[in-house]
Design a protein that fits this description.
The chain has 43 helices and 24 strands. The protein is of the alpha/beta class. The strands form 7 sheets. A 5-stranded antiparallel β-sheet has the order 5-6-10-8-9. A 4-stranded mixed β-sheet has the order 1-2-4-3, with helices on one face. It has a 4-stranded antiparallel β-sheet with strand order 13-14-12-15, with helices on both faces. A hairpin with a 4-residue loop joins strand 5 and strand 6.
Length: 968
């Protein structure tokens, strides 16, 4: 087989990872676009030289090549039937920074945020900042000519590229940049392939110079087409800038030297409110006169959408009156200067337009507003109770002073085609409009309608002197329409340029030049008919269809970031696409398609990709489109292992509630056995537990046993009765936490009871995919709690992962069960109960500092504002860590084969933050997994539960920090 020989040659000659397996090909089958093309194989080079060798091998086998950065392209330029070079894992080096010149030499796989973090001490940064800045790479930005909101001040990526080292498919390797005439003469005189290319470029430029000057729109956001204008004399015959935005169709970029910009010393953020989005657009020229650093438009649809409100609920409450808004950032050399310039702009614009204004001073709210704006693509993908939306005409740009009129005509066009619900937003200061449109891409009529709309839209934008793409590139979505914008003669010039660099058409073929039709290679299309399996979870937000859940990912790649939030710990530890939320979504999508992943639920490729999923649920809250990989993993494991033997850890860790009940008979003996040299190793091996992971010790007495024999501290609580849920982990391993919770609850005026029989939330069976058992356990729990549920009694759950089961998993597993709904509504954390039922009660102040590590399920499902407030009410100054997942994640960190990833997750941010903490600070972690990981990896950390801290306040004692110093 040709590709078998190709793969063998690549493995022999390339310093990198060579992957031609079905799982890898499925993972890279699409980007963030409507298109899907399964690659021949994937190569992950360790150095640019390894990429050169990859291209050499591919040339010998005459197969296409495609470079890929963050894989977030929206026009289909990052998927093809080719060998995909993924630069993002290893080729991430910052090779040189010239502080005086303000330049940086980098490899193409470095992510924008990572590069800017490295540059931060120098005071420099990269100018363009796309909304995908957490995951996009410099190579991808070069290939796409990326922009973002900061392009208002700093221009497109083309304006930041100083020079490039590039490789042609036929093996010519060279540095390219702006070229003076004498340098051009020298290059041509030297001859060879480089001289041939330069001579051909000059001839091409001279042949088409008049058409280039006439047909290229003079607007801030012309991204469509090749940058032939960079070859003009007035632009210094800049070959590097010619190649920016060429989408891997001409060369492979090996290294890049960038021109940097100074970080602003201060900035002010202003929101201007208008009656509608066209009125906001009409005001753009007025705002531009005040030299904003960013000028974004947001319509009421985007502001109202659920995910935007989740991202920025507090900030959105401060929006000024209106149904559309302009976000205006004004920079200055000082806060006073930025504020003064902002006030001057407000006075001018409001006086002349009647707009309403609000200044965002709070740093958190400013960050939330930008996060909401940057999440626009994801937030508009799945509007509630409306059809899903798609890219396809999401990126046009027109002259900013004509934006208002253009939007009126564009909105009329949307209405004429029945797409009028689409949200309109974007980089209004540069005339660039983003939207996602409810195209029907599954029926012949719907696809024909999409084509007609795209063609009419192209004519409309050209009539306004604009560009088909103002940021996202042409790829497959718009390349077919380029003749409408440039005319046939310039499109011919594009073809000649392609032949000059790539005469065999092996660089990302079918994109920009001789393109695929905009309605072929669709991810959906008329043949889309995924498997619709019966499932354990209900998936109500996906129309009760697992296929819709598996296809939910739109590819924006936020799960590939390292900056903040929880998602995605396994990607952060491995750098692997298949171990990101997006990669796993792709595999599940392909599993249901059945033509690349052909073994369905039995797929080992999908199993292996899900194996390193920590089931942290971080994606449930951090993903812009609410992918819930923990649920998908549990569903997959249930089917994958149905009627089959499971991994040993599924029996040991998955059934821990049962083993804990048995251990309660003789906990001392069990502890002795599980920690005895030799025997401990044998028991771990038998249970599928990593030999390096200590087994938690069982308490001498369970909380339940002690509580049933106690005398209540008071005859009754004036604030009513609560049920304290004795979860498996608190009951059997940390009963002191439950005792302290009783102290707090009774001090706050509650009568505390526990269930009269042992019950369980089923967490460990859910996380190991034993869902039939989990449902049986949950039904029994509802029966045990039945009287309390019908009485409306609050159920206080101390372990966040157990509370998250009742809030999130239970209503899906027992969908439609009224008692399940009741338990979901009545489940509260300790902090939530105090906030809702005892808002004016506070224990004596401790006057201490604490680092709070939120449990991942707390972050994703429960949130922790109420528990934070409870600690603050006790005089605790709380620093909530943004440290991601602890890495233990229930059974995950115990299982053999997971230890290294588990530790890497903890070492990413959590452990450094704990080590850097003041010795007297409390470490608060409500999750059993978090506390266990800290105890194992940082033994002196002495993590506490919120209940323990509050109980110490009630008793008037200091919590035992065990960290060296006493509290002040």
């Amino acid at each position: 087989m040709l590709f078998d020989a190709l793969a063998a040659a690549l493995r022999t000659r390339v310093d990198g990872e060579v992957r031609f397996d079905a799982g890898s090909r499925a993972t890279y089958s699409t980007d963030a676009s409507n298109y899907r093309q399964v690659p021949i194989g994937v190569v992950v080079p360790r150095t640019p030289e390894a990429a050169v060798e990859t291209v050499d091998v591919c040339r010998e086998f005459d197969v296409p090549v495609l470079s890929r950065g963050g894989g977030t392209s929206l026009a289909g330029q990052c998927c093809n039937v080719a060998v995909v070079l993924d630069w993002s894992k290893y080729c991430t080096r910052v090779l040189e920074v010239d502080d005086e010149a303000g330049t940086a030499l980098v490899e193409p796989g470095v992510k924008l945020d990572d590069l800017n973090d490295a540059l931060a001490p120098s005071g420099w940064m990269v100018g363009p900042k796309p909304s995908t800045h957490v995951s996009c790479t410099i190579g991808g930005m070069i290939g796409n000519n990326s922009c973002g909101s900061s392009a208002q001040a700093y221009g497109k990526t083309v304006d930041s590229v100083r020079r490039l080292e590039v490789l042609t498919y036929d093996g010519a390797r060279m540095w390219v940049q702006a070229t003076e005439d004498d340098e051009y003469d020298r290059i041509v005189h030297e001859g060879g392939r480089r001289g041939e290319i330069y001579h051909g470029l000059r001839a091409l430029r001279d042949r088409y110079a008049d058409e280039i000057r006439e047909r290229y729109p003079d607007i801030p956001r012309r991204v469509s087409g090749y940058n032939l204008d960079s070859l003009l004399p007035e632009k210094n015959f800049d070959v590097a800038q010619l190649l920016v935005g060429s989408e891997s169709t001409l060369v492979t970029v090996l290294r890049a030297e960038l021109t940097l910009v100074r970080r602003p010393a201060a900035s002010a953020l202003v929101l201007l409110g208008f009656d509608d989005i066209t009125a906001a657009a009409d005001a753009v020229p007025l705002v531009v006169q005040h030299d904003p650093a960013a000028l974004e438009g947001i319509d009421h649809r985007l502001a109202q959408l659920e995910h935007s409100r989740h991202l920025a609920e507090n900030a959105l409450r401060q929006l000024p009156e209106g149904a559309a808004w302009l976000m205006v950032q004004i920079n200055g050399d000082s806060r006073a200067e930025a504020d003064g310039r902002a006030e001057k702009m407000i006075d001018d614009v409001c006086r002349r337009t009647g707009a309403h204004a609000a200044v965002f001073d709070d740093a958190t709210h400013k960050k939330q507003m930008w996060a909401a704006r940057e999440a626009g693509l994801g937030a508009t993908a799945y509007p509630r109770n409306e059809p899903e939306t798609h890219e396809g005409w999401e990126d046009a740009a027109v002259p900013p002073d004509r934006l208002g009129d253009y939007l009126r005509d564009f909105r009329a066009l949307l209405d004429r085609y029945g797409y009028g619900t689409a949200s309109l937003y974007g980089h209004f200061g540069q005339g660039c409009v983003h939207t996602r449109i409810p195209f029907d891409l599954r029926t012949a009529d719907g696809i024909a309608k999409y084509r007609a709309f795209a063609e009419d839209s192209a004519h409309l934008v050209v009539d306004y002197g604009g560009s088909l793409s103002g940021e996202h590139g042409d790829g497959q979505s718009r390349a077919e329409l380029l003749p409408i914008m440039f005319g046939e003669r310039l499109v011919t010039a594009f073809g000649e340029l392609k032949v000059l660099f790539d005469p065999r058409n092996r660089m990302n073929p079918g994109k920009i030049v001789h393109p695929f039709r905009l309605d072929e290679n669709l991810r959906q299309g008329v043949t889309y008919r995924p498997l619709e399996p019966d499932t354990h979870f209900a998936y109500p937000a996906d129309g009760h269809r697992f296929s819709h859940a598996a296809a939910r990912c739109v590819g924006v790649g936020k799960c590939r970031g390292h900056e903040s939030g929880v998602m995605c710990p396994s990607y952060r530890a491995t750098g692997e696409e298949e171990h990101s939320t997006r990669g796993r979504s792709r595999l599940l999508f392909e599993m249901l398609q059945g033509d690349v992943i052909t073994d369905g639920w039995r797929s080992t490729a999908v199993r292996d990709a899900l194996d390193l999923c920590l089931a942290c649920k971080g994606c449930r809250s951090d993903c812009p489109v609410d992918v819930d990989m923990a649920t998908y993993k549990a569903e997959f494991l249930a089917h994958h292992y149905e009627h089959r033997l499971r991994p040993l850890a599924h029996y040991s860790m998955g059934w821990i509630p049962l083993w804990a009940r048995l251990a309660a008979i003789a906990p001392g003996l069990v502890n002795t056995l599980t920690h005895a040299p030799g025997l401990s190793s044998a028991l771990k091996a038998a249970g599928g537990i990593d030999r390096r992971r200590p087994v938690p010790r069982f308490a001498r007495q369970r909380f339940r046993d002690e509580f049933t024999r106690r005398t209540p501290a008071q005859p009754g609580g004036e604030r009513g009765t609560v049920v304290l849920w004795p979860d498996t982990f608190t009951d059997n391993f940390d009963p002191q936490i439950a005792r302290d919770a009783v102290t707090v609850l009774e001090a706050a005026g509650f009568d505390v009871r526990i269930p009269d029989r042992t019950a369980c939330c089923g967490l460990t069976w859910i996380s190991t995919g034993q869902l039939t058992t989990a449902k049986r356990v949950l039904r029994r729990t509802l029966k045990v709690l039945g009287p309390d549920l019908r009485a409306g009694t609050p159920v206080v759950v101390l372990e966040p992962s157990c509370a998250a089961v009742f809030r999130a998993d239970l209503p899906q597993l027992l969908y439609g069960d009224e008692d399940a709904r009741r338990l979901t509504r009545q489940t509260v954390t300790l902090g939530e109960l105090l906030r809702e039922k005892a808002p004016h009660w506070h224990p004596p102040h401790l006057n201490a500092e604490a680092l709070l590590q939120p449990h991942c399920h707390q972050h994703a499902v429960l949130k922790y504002a109420a528990d934070h407030d409870a600690l603050a009410g006790a005089g605790i100054e709380v620093d909530i860590l943004d440290a991601g997942c602890c890495g233990l994640a229930g059974n995950f960190g115990f299982e053999r084969g997971h230890y290294d990833v588990s530790v890497a997750c903890a070492e990413d941010k959590l452990l450094p933050a704990v080590r850097a903490a003041d010795p007297g600070a409390l470490i608060v972690a409500d999750g059993f997994s978090c506390r266990t990981q800290l105890r194992d990896l940082e033994p002196g950390s002495a993590p506490l539960h919120t209940a323990q801290v509050l109980a110490a306040a009630v008793h008037g004692t200091e919590p035992n920090t065990g960290r060296g110093n006493r509290l002040p």
